[in-house]
Task: structure prediction
Amino acid sequence: MTVITGQNGYVGTALRAWLEKDGYEVRRVGVRGETDENIFENADVVIHTAGIVHNKKADDALYDAVNTALTKKLALLAKNSGVRHFIFFSTMAVYGMTEGRIDRQTVPSPKNGYGKSKLAAEKLLLEMQTDDFKVTILRSPMVYGRGCPGNYALLSGLCKKVHIFPDVKNKRSLIYIGNLCDCVERVIKDGITGIIHPQNAEYVNTADMCRYIAAYSGKKVFFSRLLGAVVPHLGISAAKKAFGSLYYADDTAFLCDRYGLEESIRLTETGSLSGQNDNF
Result:
């Protein structure tokens, strides 16, 4: 049996649908409040997706309590319950970078409570790993897909409203939810352990992403090379996130290629709701 932590999360919902579609027995559990010591009974694999992401109301203490201390508690319960494989969703944010190339020599240096709490959890989990308790850490970049929260929804809304968009030539590591689910299934099947860096097989160019969004939304957008040359250098944080380059190098990336970029945008913009079997 596979147990997924987190009752209502976007990734956990999609993962359950994906794995059940492929014949896995899956159970989702909530981990807020007191945790039942038998929560992982009869489980072979635990996928820990629950946690606090970027939250303006959260301070470092709350990030530590949920993303670090709770992760350690759940991992110990899993280990004591005979779970053989613990899969932890970490984040690209452990590197503390808004721009640049991340390779095997890049040292994690998180800049906020979210990234720091995830990195601390990673270290605790790796210390717990044994031959009978495998640990896999996924340092995921931004996830997008139908009904996703976060920055993709903002970009999609922008591409549907504007008539002119910067024709940038940037490069970003992103991952479509279907590719992420396929990647997790590979991790389970092949017993892949250690730290991996999942991403789409193709690096994403923000302008190309907007082209596909506009096309599948029936919108006409003009792409300006002049704006593309200027906007990434404005020194504005939001502009760097949207139009700068931040990516995993070839020697680091774990490629997830079930869906290409155009197909993933088509499914995101026109597909069914997340969590349904035809979402992918």
